[in-house]
Design a protein that fits this description.
Layout (H helix, E strand, L loop, with lengths): L5 E2 L9 H10 L18 H18 L5 E6 L2 H13 L7 E4 L4 H10 L4 E4 L25 E4 L1 E2 L4 E2 L11 E4 L16 E5 L10 E6 L16 H6 L9 H16 L2 H21 L5 E2 L11 E6 L6 H13 L2 E2 L10 E4 L6 H18 L1
Parallel strand pairs: 1-13, 3-4, 3-5, 5-8, 8-9
Antiparallel strand pairs: 2-10, 6-7, 9-10, 11-12, 12-14
Helix pairs in contact: 1-6, 2-6, 3-4, 7-9
The structure holds 4'-deoxy-4'-aminopyridoxal-5'-phosphate.
The site of 4'-deoxy-4'-aminopyridoxal-5'-phosphate has 11 residues, from helix 3.
Length: about 375
């Protein structure tokens, strides 16, 4: 074993160690077949077993109702920004969609949707993303084809802890960065998507959960590979899927199940994030998190050091010191600066404790 690394990256992010060990064990010879999954046709019964068990594990972990399809797609979260609009904006004749824009990723999704229909941002534009505008101030359009929101803004660290009430309008959510970190009532959504590379696997596959009755209404110009109906009819095997990424997803889902499922992940995520927020809150302003307390993310914790705007020299010193201790990928997103600790499912309480201890020591050194 080499130097112990504590990976607080925002994605692609840490994978559970047992998953990597299992993948390593099976890399050269999968299931006694004498070949690697990397070399195996997606039309084999062995691969079918992998994709089918990934689906059934996911159905079990999230209690996905039978009238929802589970798809494994390519193109990442960004591909879904387009796919959502291409498949759903035509559900109603007006081709309008409502977007709740609380950060970089929902803003990106709204921008893509504008290529295919009319986009209404339901609240006044924010100068800085620091919270979720109060839902009483949203102007929702009852004839919108859907309402879209990003459940956890990875860059800003803003997380919804409620499901927006959209009356009868279909609700769509990007759960890329908090997927499977807590239970979710799928029946409240028309569609949920999540890129795998944060909480459920490695880059290359994006999971889509979509209600059956919304299929088959894609715009004419929708590329075949982004058409949910085509993917649903072909068990996500219309063309070559990202086979190895789907296999890793299967291993991570098994790991989540063996570790108590989404309830356990939820409990742990609250425990881990509180350890870091407590230090921020009790640091007399030395550490500051700009996000409203009511919607601070359990997954991504952005903070500044020294003052609200961030003392860049101090932040550099913090990151260098962390790196010497093996704590990596703590740098904030280039658009917001500062520090960001991502605490996805695979990050342990012990690793979080190590970061908390370092933050306390750094604080005392600079008091
Ligand atoms: N949505 C969210 C919430 C994200 O965090 C990201 C990526 N960090 C994306 C979408 C875009 O995903 P991708 O890079 O897979 O296109």
């Amino acid at each position: 074993d080499t130097k112990t690394i504590l990976n607080f990256g925002s994605g692609p992010a840490k994978l559970p160690k047992p998953v990597l060990i299992q993948a390593q064990k099976e890399l050269l010879d999968y299931n006694g077949l004498g070949i690697s999954i990397l070399e195996m046709s997606h039309r084999t019964s062995d691969f079918n077993q992998i994709i089918n068990s990934a689906e059934s594990l996911l159905r079990e972990l999230l209690s996905i109702p039978a009238n929802y399809k589970v798809l494994f797609m390519q193109g990442g979260g960004t591909g879904q920004f387009s796919a959502v609009a291409l498949n759903l904006i035509g559900l109603k004749e007006d081709r309008c969609a409502d977007y709740i824009v609380t950060g970089t990723w929902s803003a990106g999704a709204a921008k893509e949707a504008e290529k295919h229909g009319k986009v209404n941002v339901v609240h006044p534009k924010m100068d800085r993303y620091t919270g979720i505008p109060d839902s009483s101030s949203w102007s929702l359009n009852p004839s919108a084809s859907y309402v879209y929101f990003c459940c956890n803004e990875t860059v800003h660290g803003i997380e919804f802890n409620f499901i927006p009430d959209t009356k009868d309008v279909i609700l769509v959510s990007d759960m890329s960065s908090n997927f499977l970190s807590r239970p979710v009532d799928v029946s409240k959504f028309g569609l949920i998507f999540a890129g795998a590379q944060k909480n459920v696997g490695c880059a290359g596959v994006t999971i889509v959960i979509v209600r059956e009755d919304l299929l088959g209404k894609a715009l004419k110009e929708c590329p075949t590979i982004l058409d949910y109906n085509v993917q649903a009819k072909n068990n996500s095997l219309h063309n070559t899927p990202p086979t190895y990424s789907i296999y890793i997803v299967k291993l991570v889902l098994e790991w989540i199940k063996n570790n108590g499922g989404t309830d356990a992940m939820n409990k742990l995520s609250k425990q881990k994030s509180s350890m870091i927020y407590d230090i921020i809150n009790n640091s007399n302003g030395f550490y500051s998190c700009p996000i409203d307390v009511s919607c601070r993310s359990r997954m991504n914790i952005p903070f500044r050091i020294g003052n609200m705007e961030g003392d860049e020299a101090l932040e550099r010193e913090f990151l260098e010191g962390a790196s010497k201790l093996g704590m990596i990928s703590l740098k904030g997103h280039r658009s917001v600066g500062g520090v960001r600790a991502s605490l996805y499912n695979a990050v342990t309480v012990e690793e979080t404790q190590a970061l908390a201890t370092y933050m306390k020591e750094f604080l005392h050194k600079h008091l």
